Amino acid sequence: MSSVVDIQNVSFAYGEQTAVDDVSLTIEEGDFLGLIGPNGSGKTTLLHLMLGLLSPDSGSIELFGQSVDSFDQGERIGYVSQQATSRGGTMPVTVRECVRMGRFAHVGHSRLTDEDRRIAEEALETVDIMNLADRRVNQLSGGQRQRAYIARALASEADLLALDEPTVGVDADSRDAFYQLLDSLNNAGITIVLIEHDIGVVTDRANRIACINTELYHHGDTESFVESDALSEAYGTTGTVVHHHH
Ligand code: ADP
After folding, report:
1. Residue limits of the ABC transporter domain (predicted)?
2. Domain at 3-85+158-235, CATH from 2.40.128.100, 3.20.20.70, 3.40.50.620, 3.40.50.300
3. What is the pLDDT of residues 170-184, one digit of tens each?
4. Between the CA of residue 75 and those of 41, 70, 149, 244, what are the distances in Å?
5. If you measure from the C-alpha of residue 19 to the centroid of ligand 1, how many angstroms do you get, rounded to a whole number?
6. Is the ipTM of this complex over 0.90?
């Protein structure tokens, strides 16, 4: 069985600036992988590499056993970018239309069947935004917009959800509900990769952790991460000051 994501020895630089240095990691079906690291540590870059939005300078990346260069199953991936919470750039479509767009990957724009519409309605229900179905996406709050994009990914029957700091600008209650939703989607078999700056959220929810600071400091299960020094090493608070004994 192949991995959902298989990254081998991947490096990437913006000009002279190395953002990802020789990183290897895999994401298996059903994983909830938390991708953490300090600001500017290459998390978004690594996510973009894994989704084929950037090409690595070296190394190889496979999605669902297929090289990312020739990957042609985009409907299997739902991506909620960091910009998704901001109002700018969203089309003035309704939430229902936005979610139905998730079906366009399967059928042409003008060919939505009753079954496609039913799947879209189900997705609205799953993420609990039926009450927002007729509102325009660009008039939603950040948290509501995140849900609309998740519903669109569900409508496209994505197997992998990639989320880049999805709760920035979302209030605490909605944030909690949002992470419960992610848990239930993961329990239903959807593989999740989540960039999140709140490490407590990640260690509570994720079964696997990748901790990077340009290089990879940890890749493995959450328990072994919590017991390791990877966090302090990657975040630069290592060494004699913290650990010295008299
Ligand atoms: P993170 O998501 O962990 O905050 P990023 O992947 O966004 O980190 O950035 C990694 C490094 O690459 C940072 O030093 C950042 O300044 C740099 N970087 C990110 N995007 C660009 C870009 N488009 N052009 C040049 N440098 C970039």
Report:
1. 5-239
2. 3.40.50.300
3. 888 888 888 998 999
4. 29, 14, 13, 52
5. 6
6. yes
